[in-house]
Each structure stands twice: as structure tokens, then as C-alpha cells.
Amino acid sequence: MRKRLNQxxxxxxxxxxxxxxxxxxxxxRGVNGTSVEQIAERAGYSRGAFYGNFTDKHELxxxxxxxxTLHELDEVKDIAQRPDPYAALREWHKARAEHLAxxxxxxxxxxxxxxxxxxxxxxxxxxxxxxxDAHANSIESTFTSLGKEPPADPGFxxxxxxxxxxxxMVQRMLFPDEISDDVIVDAAELLMxxxxxxxxx
Length: 201
Description:
Tetracycline Repressor, domain 2, 201 residues, mainly alpha, 2 domains, Arc Repressor Mutant, subunit A, 0% strand
């Protein structure tokens, strides 16, 4: 028998489905091109159900970004704890590549939304800070394990890696037959080897 959900569980389920529907529609039509009614309809709810969970579309966008950030952070933390982090990272990027178009469309749309709505920029910057901190911690740990000092501040090196990651995702989408799913990990490893070789013990 299916477990009956209590009121709090039903509310959480409704929010989850609304967020999932919004993510799909934003990636396909853009934030500005998606209405509250379309989000509610895609999730299987009424317009009233939407406003029972979110004040407006902007609040939903902020919550969507927050949930995506926390989910990605959990995945990155799990990768860092694996016996072979680089192998785990490769598998993570391969899994992401299967849904690259949708993931990249949503990411670009959120950046465009931030450009049009300056009040959203701090939330997007906070999400980027999580990714940058994860990269910086990984870089610092790698150099510590090698017994070397990084050639520059780990935060700056993380910025380089993160920017490279964004650019390579676009190139991967444009040239799927020429660029492999491993391109981001390969590029990151090449950078780390180059930086490590240039740094004395």
C-alpha cells in the first residue's frame, strides 16, 4: 500500500514538482517566456497551488537555484570522498553530458535572468561561490598531497578551472562528435600537472 502523505509531505511534494516543471520549461522557453500557469500545468497543479507555495516566479527562480546548488554541492562532496576522485569525477561528467543540452540551457537562462534582474545577481553569485570554493579546496588538497605550494592563490586557480569548465561545456555541445565527455576532467588534470611541474617542492 502507498503511504499516505501528511500535510507537510504533500506541500514538499508539490514544491518539488513545481520546481522540476519550472526547470524544464525555463530550459526550453526561458524564464521570461514561461508563465506561472504553464509551470502549474506542467506539474499537474492549479495556479492556486503555485501561489500557495511561491509568492511569484522570481521566488521560484531563487529557490530553484538554491536547490540545484545544494544538490551539486552534495555530489561534489561525495566525489571528493571516493577512493579515486578523478575516476568519480569522470563518471559525474559523463552522466551530466547525457543531459548537457538541458543543463546548459538552464544555466545560460539563469545568467540571462540575472543580467535582466540585478536583484537576482547576489543569489547567482552565491551559487558560483559554492562551485569556486569546491574547486579551490580540491586544488589545495592536491598540492598538499604532492608536498608542494600552489603557483598562485587556490581561489584564483579555481576561477581559471571553473571558467574553463563553462567554456568547454559550450564547445562540447557544439562539437559532440569531436569532443569527448572527459574533456573537462582531461583539461583540469592537464592544468594541475602543468602547475605542479612548474612549482618546486
